[in-house]
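User: Teach me something about this protein's shape.
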Amino acid sequence: MALVTNPEATRALLGFPTDRHGAQDFIPLLRRGFPSKTVAALSKSLELPAVATWQLLGLAPRTLARRLSGRGRLTLDESERVLRLALVLTTAVDVFGTIEKARAWLQKESRVLGDVPLRLLDTDVGASLVLDELGRIEHGVFA
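Assistant: First, the predicted structure itself:
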């Protein structure tokens, strides 16, 4: 998983209090399992339905329905996937300056990546490729 370069923004994006400041503060949250409401918060930021956001993470819609109606907590793996998507979105906002521009870039076909960046975020490798591309854009290195 990618490094948390902007933990406060990532916490805010997921609907967590921003009173903590380090990336290490995510570890106990991940181990406990994010509340299911983090999916809704992330979906709102992406302007996508929760089910579509969940599917971007490579997870079945029925699983989301169980999480929302059951104990209300995600598993460690599900929480890490949600955090991965939030990290990419936070990084894109940092690179492009606004959430609107970040969303537009994430939802547009990328010739360099060979796909829509959001579609690559169901794996760590795909997320790394997207983050690498964002780094190149930020530093003005074009392929």
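Now, about its shape. The chain has one domain: 7-138. The chain is about 60% helix and 0% strand. If you'd like, I can walk through any region in more detail.
User: That's plenty for now, thanks!
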